[in-house]
Amino acid sequence: MFRVGGAPDSDTETTLSRGLDLICQGIALLAGEDRSGWTGSDRAALVLELGEVSERLEAERVRAVGEWDAVTAWVADGALSAASWLATAAPISRTRANQLVRTARLARRYERVGKALAAGDLPVPHAEILATATRGRDLLLRRDEDSLVELAPTLSVDDFTTAMKHWRSAADDEMASADAHLAFVERSVSYATTLYERVDLQMSLDAEGGATVIGALQAFDTGPDTAPDEGGPADGPRTLAQRYADAMVQLCAEALARRQAAGHPTPGIDGMIDVSLLGLGASGAPGLDEPEYFDVHGRPGGSEAPSAWDPTRHCHLDSVGPVALDVLVRLACDAAVGRIVMRGQSEVLDLGRRARIVPRALRRAIRRRDRGCVFPGCTAPVHWCDVHHLVHWADGGPTNLENCALLCRRHHVLCHEGGWRLACSPDGTVEIVQRGPGPRTRPPRPPGAGAPRPPGAGPPGTRAPTPGHHRAPSYDLAA
Q1: For residues 154 and 376, what is the distance between their CA atoms, to the nearest angstrom?
Q2: Given this model, what pLDDT does residue 458 score?
């Protein structure tokens, strides 16, 4: 007799051997019995009696497999699973081995099922149907275990199969509803500012909310960009992720604009920058070719470069924190600007009213003339565009029809943070007069780079603000 998982004690082995010996003796008697004179009813009775005995033996085998599987005895023979061991060591198919193990585990884990199977109240075929239909639905099976065990012996195998199909369908609907509600309850959107002047967004939505956001992104996505040599934007095509990022920003900007137009209190993009910094952005000439230093009063003409980092300077966006100078310079192209004169770090001496850099009438004229982004090859519509000063107003550029043009956010960023420059040709078309150096690779993230930027700190590896020590006045910007 073949056994695994350790030898039983002598009393157990004696009882086990006696029981199996009696079974074998009974089978031998049946096999040697002369049935030549049996009637049809006698033969039918034998079939039924053998079925009952076979059912009891199969129930015992299920119980034995469950106990054997519980101690993972099959691992000792190097098998990868209980089913693979059975399919190899016992004369059964892999499908039958899987079914046997599944039923055995059900009987072991669910007390009412195990007791009913051992007592003969739950036929093995019904237990197998129960094990298959309830797979992956443990919580609902624990709730309905008693009623299913009581129902099983009252139905034929086929009828119980049908009943369990209905139960499984109802259980799946209930689980799907519970999962959908859980997804809604656990919905979340969070954001965090990083040391690399980025805002990282994380979003988890239920199915309907997610479909709404995906639909909005797809609606605002302009589709794949055409290559530059085929008439597309000169800075090349964007990736799908970049297009979706642009779409997200644009749909939020339009939503804010509609709320503001409807008269609702609407938060904008507020920032603050020292007046001495405005003329030093990449879009303005000073500071690009020949370094221009400032004295302690903010007047040009200093002979030595000041400290590379000055924690007293203002160059930040509300809700985000310190940002690159060029970001604020770009926002100042088309924003409402107000003057704030301060003494020291906290005393406000004068707070001027905000005024739009680009008057409404001039904006209408620019929009009517340009009808969209003027960057070569770009087809962004007019409502996606900001007014860009070809020569920034902080550098002495006028705010008039000749010095202003429409740029979508993508190309407005390119002409400030990206270092590109545009100019108006004599025939009135906009041309690229300087291409930027291309995106820089991000340096290795220092330890703790995911933490928010501490107030008044200038950690190593971050971009240093433009030199200078002038404190007042500052500009309060609202895009």
Answers
A1: 79
A2: 43
